[in-house]
Amino acid sequence: MQGLIAILGGKRSSGKVSVWYAGAQSGNIGGPLVKVQRLKEFFPESRLNFTHAYLLSNCPYLPMWALKWLKWRRIPIVLNQNGVFYPAWFDGDYKQKNSEMAKAWQLADYVFYQSNFCKSSAEKFLGKRSGPGEVLFNAVDLEHFKPDPARKNTRPILLHTGKLTRHMLYRVEALLRGFSLALMKGLDAELRIAGWMDGFVFTRLTQLVKELDLGERVSFLGPYDQRVAPSLYSSADAYVTLTFNDACPSSVIEALACGLPVLHSASGGVPELVTEKAGVGLPVENGYDRIDVPSIDLIADGLAEILNDLPVRQAAARERAVEAFDIKNWVGRHSAIFEQLSARR
Questions:
Q1: Among the four residues 107, 273, 330, 340, which has the most C-beta atoms within 10 Å?
Q2: What H or E segment, with its residue span, contains residue 35?
Q3: pLDDT tens digits, residue range 61-110?
Q4: Given its phi and psi angles, is residue 287 left (phi above 0), alpha (psi -120 to 50 degrees) or beta?
Q5: Measuring CA to CA, which residue among 29, 67, 59 is closest to residue 194?
Q6: H-type helices in 126-269, by residue range?
Q7: Contacts of 95 (CB under 8 A, 6+ apart)
Q8: Which residues lie below 8 Å from residue 184, measured CB to CB, with a gap of 6+?
Q9: 339: number of Cβ within 10 Å
Q10: Closest C-alpha to 110, from 134, 86, 136
Q11: How many Å apart are CA 184 and CA 156, to the nearest integer?
Q12: Which residues does residue 218 pair with via DSSP β-bridges, in sequence order?
């Protein structure tokens, strides 16, 4: 279907940018869905009379012949490059999956890398590329995601969010064990875990909470979407993510925008997002062959550290978001590149 649109659609630039997202869907839940939804607010989609094709690396719907057709028609191709496939997280034929992703990577007229980590990973696994591009972090509406000035919790609240399937169980299992140890060491805090999780993960985590006697300090909030996300983040005091090699998680950016300092695995693209004052990175062995998780002792100490001098850290988190993740700048860069590519046609 998308290949047919590539053939039938497209038009000569008339000075007005019209974007086709090549099959990528939009929505309120999930990074890629939210990203496309934000783009469509500023660059509405046209499936037939488009001047530019905008592709997401994790949604490679166009075959090589369709990409080449767009090139022949001189329709600019812009690629948003996120992660790649590698053994640490993908059990299948990662080389074959990367070869599919590499088609758009090699033919795109311009590439937006979500982080320097994304750029280096693409260069490592997708082969050589000679075209232009830049690192452009994901972004949020800073008027939508912002601190709650009335936030006054009885005890500090730590927040973890995200979709949890079996292969992501490690990040919350380790967090619960570290949180239990931190409480034993005297930490007085609560932990909230929000987001969809599959049945296996929910059963395992609820069992672990019971085993560790955390029932009064840990709560599961269930799924949420972008409409309630700002209030979810701004009601907490600090954010925690132990995901290994996360490329450029919107959840971290949303947390920072709401004034939450971030405790994180010092891997992937997250260290680029979080400044020293706005977060604490827990050391892990970086690489692509296996997932590495911070030790329970490090997690426990990190939980205490991220809550230390909290007002200063919260202010630094918001400052970082204003500096680097304003959606106005993000949209501005897209607009500039769209216009630049139009001028070259």
A1: 273
A2: helix 31-42
A3: 788 998 999 999 899 999 999 999 999 999 899 999 999 999 999 999 99
A4: left
A5: 29
A6: 169-184, 199-211, 229-234, 250-257
A7: 85
A8: none
A9: 13
A10: 134
A11: 16
A12: 191
pTM: 0.93
Query: Is 90 exceeded by the pLDDT of residue 152?
Result: no
54: β partners:
78
Sheet of strand 218-222, all strands in order from the earlier edge strand to the far edge = 218-222, 190-194, 157-161, 238-241, 262-265, 279-282
**Which letter does DSSP use for residue 164 in this model?**
B
What is each CA distance from 162 to 169, 197, 224, 235, 276, in whole angstroms? Answer: 11, 8, 9, 17, 23
Closest Cα partner for 89 from 320, 290, 338? 290
Encode pLDDT of 249-294 as tens digits: 999 999 999 999 999 999 999 999 999 999 999 999 999 999 999 9
| Exposure string for 140-177, b = 16+ CB within 10 A, e = fewer | bbbeebbbeeeeeeeebbbbbbbebeeebbebbbbbbb
* Token pair listed for 131: 């075209």
Joined together, the tokens standing for residue 270 give 């997250």
Domains and CATH numbers, the chain: 2-139+326-344 (3.40.50.2000), 157-324 (3.40.50.2000)
Query: Tokens 């974007």 appear where?
Result: 19
Q: Where residue 58 falls among pLDDT bands split at 50, 70, 90?
A: confident
**Would you tell me how many other CB atoms lie within 10 Å of the CB of residue 42?**
15
How far from 72 is each of 12, 133, 338, CA to CA, in Å?
Answer: 12, 21, 18
Residue 125 DSSP SS3 = helix
Higher pLDDT, 37 or 5: 37
Give the DSSP per-residue string, 273-315: HS-TTTEEEEP----SSS-----HHHHHHHHHHHTTTHHHHHH
Q: In angstroms, rounded to a whole number, what is the distance separating the alpha carbons of residues 129 and 103? A: 11
Q: Which of 135, 82, 86, 72 is nearest to 105 (CA)?
A: 82
